[in-house]
Amino acid sequence: MELENKKIKIQAKNLNVYYGAKQALFNINLEINQKEVTALIGPSGCGKSTFIRCINRMNDVIDICKVDGSIEIDGSEINDKKVDVVMLREKIGMVFQKPNPFPKSIYDNIAYGPIIHGLAEEKNQMDNIVETSLKKAALWDEVKDRLDEPGTSLSGGQQQRLCIARALSVSPEVILMDEPCSALDPIATAKIEELIDELKKSYTIVIVTHSMAQAVRVSQKTGFFHMGKIIEVDSTDKIFKNPSNKMTQDYITGRFG
Amino acid sequence: MTKEERLKKRYNSEKRFKFYGILSVSLAMIFVLVLIQNIVSKGSSAFSRTTIEVDIIYNANLLEIEGPITKEALNNAEFYDLSVESILKIFPSQNAKEERQVLRLFSPDFEYEVKRVLSKKPNKINDIVPIRLTASDDVDQLNKGNFPRDLPEDRRRVSNFQLNIYDNLVEQDKIGKKFNDYFFTKGDSRDPELAGIGGSLMGSFFTIVICLILSFPIAIMASIYLEEFAPKNKITDFIEININNLAAVPSIVYGLLGLGILLSVMEFPRSTPLVAGITLSLMTLPRIIIPCRASLKAVPPSIREAALSVGASKFQTVFHHVVPLAMPGTLSGTIIGLAQALGETAPLILIGMVAFVVDIPGTPVDPSASLPVQVFLWSEQAERGFVEKTSATIMMLLGFLIVMNFIAVYLRQKFEKKWN
Question: Do A167 and B310 touch (CB under 8 A)?
């Protein structure tokens, strides 16, 4: 199968996550291939968001959250004490459910990441980064004349693309998307999906989605989560056409969830 | 109950609620208006003072100057005899008792008022110089219409003789009114016409500056640490509860603390803005920390996530994004905390700010009064002149508080960033 030819970018092994006494993820084993879109589907509260927040250690900020097990990126463990989260998050960008631009200008939104990582030394280098990032996020043409306007003045879809551009500005290798289209209308959603299709040529993308149609449209591989467990992982084609698990079958045909 | 009846009942209860709301707002407004009307009507007359014009005969022989009359000699000269001689000429007196009564129409500072004008005019020697001298409190109140004239003489502060002189002076158009600059420039005094808020204004200013310098940085740092960095455990819970408790501690307790530690143990100078500022900053700290933490908490978590996800450290996230966004709320909380400190009286009484201080403080370690304590001090005085002074001081204090609150609201609205 074509799946096996792909290089594995992220590998989760026996991952358990607890929020206080409550266990949110049970023994997750998942391989995410390089330069491919992996979709995570499942009913609300099944742990898909918790899982992708483990990949860039976003769960660190939650005091009561405890992560157990291993996640390797390019073969190196990220849950290790020695790993610096700042460097990790430079490598792994994230886009959230609700567009969350900084209440600053469009330019400053993009420039913030490169500034704190010292990626540009001169003004024109920074201009370059901003322009490339916005172009990659397919937003440049819409905002090139108003880079000084606040990012919050854009429409919802544009804000989300701004957030994608912001994630791209520090040249990550992986982009995590946590239901990036759930707050957007169908036209904005279509644009983001088109963008994801383009981005997968250079980035590894993990997307959490509630829309099964979206998973079919954008992803090559799909993982089905239920009650904190992975029920089934396979190529998107297989999951939606011929799932091997009865529960997956029920979920994708809309019998529950 | 039918559908129509239920609908009617619902509408009625809405109407009733609206009525109660309007009623309570109007009641509150009436109370505020009555308060302000009362203070303004009593206090506005304090901004003018009554003067009596006297033709001063510049008789150099009465100056007790030995040698040539130079500018320097004039500066050291005694103008008392000269002033008295001219003042007694405004009305013929039969005996020493009547002379005293004439002099008592003027404020006891008349000698210096005369000196201030004449010592600059050596060329006018042996001329007659008309000078508007400040009238005594009794004449001032009489002129402002606060003393009823139809009382029997033994129940009046102004004798028939003095009343006669006053009427005579009014006829000659010698009685005048001018803007009361003394009220703003002078310190406290036993004579109402010479008492001013200059000293207490400076005292309050130094106090608030010290309070700001001490409490603002500490409160900001404490709230940032507690809100953003401190682990959430029993100790931080305990600290949080105690901060909330401290904000509710009666202010006089802080006064006792200042008295017990700052004055008794550390032996800081008594009655000074330094001690007042430190004491009030203890009181203000929890009152600033609480709104600061609230405004930090109000910054949406999505902003923190956004910063963290592009690889900002915790420190960068807090200081590049969260703190700037919380600044408007923080600043307005600080200003409101300081406004409360400005109006605080009880703790200052305990640390000795009630002392009678005539001199205007030049530094925070000089003994001084403060505006609210000045109100307290003057409200106890018997003289009619202090009544208007008290109300006028309240007006000044309220003015400062309103300005500070206005700045707080302005900052909040101007710099509050909108996010969805």
Answer: yes
